[in-house]
Amino acid sequence: GNSVTQMEGPVTLSEEAFLTINCTYTATGYPSLFWYVQYPGEGLQLLLKATKADDKGSNKGFEATYRKETTSFHLEKGSVQVSDSAVYFCALSLKAAGNKLTFGGGTRVLVKP
Amino acid sequence: AAGVIQSPRHLIKEKRETATLKCYPIPRHDTVYWYQQGPGQDPQFLISFYEKMQSDKGSIPDRFSAQQFSDYHSELNMSSLELGDSALYFCASSFGRGMETQYFGPGTRLLVL
């Protein structure tokens, strides 16, 4: 079946530090890949996406590159802010599987001033 | 821009009661997905609808049913509620079958006592 594995948290960083959250996937076919962010007490917001190999998604200083050879979609940000504290979910969807999202377990990120 | 609307935002029920959650997709979106997120868990796909027809089914208990109406809003009906049904229920919408990006509502937090 399809699955997403991401690094467990919590990840605690100081402001302006570099953030990496690893995400790997298993899928039958060629999935689209996503990062969603969930701020405390809120719903899921799409952060970025990539729909084919070597695509790079980017938004708000975050980046992730679709690596088919390593089945990965790692999230990076060069300089985090306190406001980036949230839970980050990596997810995949497949058209052949009805486009439902399969999520990783989520990674909680805490950025300290 | 208009977003996905869910109501109610919070709901408290007793065991064995019923609950109805509502979802109003982004205007012109014709596809609705329901997800359940337990405490500290990643969201799990329940069911989806495209053009008022069920298009996919995930780990949805038989006690739950859902439908999409002519105005594309959707309702999730939950009967014989159990303590384990306490969770955050998300609705997401997208435009067209096969379009990958899903936009999430703020969720309904259900507490079963």
Topology:
The complex is a heterodimer of chains A (113) and B (113).
Chain A: E1 3-6, E2 11-14, E3 19-21, E4 23-26, E5 32-38, E6 44-50, E7 56-59, E8 62-65, E9 75-77, E10 86-93, E11 102-103, E12 107-112
Chain B: E1 5-7, E2 10-13, E3 19-24, E4 31-37, E5 44-50, E6 53-57, E7 64-68, E8 74-78, E9 87-94, E10 103-104, E11 108-112
List descriptors.
heterodimer; A: 113 residues; mainly beta; four-stranded antiparallel beta sheet; globular; B: 113 residues; seven-stranded mixed beta sheet
Structural description of this entry:
The complex is a heterodimer of chains A (113) and B (113). With 113 residues, chain A is an all-beta fold. Chain A has no helices and twelve strands. Chain A has strands spanning 3-6, 11-14, 19-21, 23-26, 32-38, 44-50, 56-59, 62-65, 75-77, 86-93, 102-103, 107-112. Chain A is globular. The model of chain A has no long low-confidence stretch (mean pLDDT 94). In chain B, the strands form two sheets. In chain B, strands 2, 4, 5, 6, 9, 10 and 11 form a seven-stranded mixed β-sheet that branches. The A-B interface holds A 32, 34, 36, 42-46, 49, 51, 89, 93, 95, 97-106 and B 31, 33, 35, 41-45, 48, 55-56, 58, 90, 92, 94, 97-107.
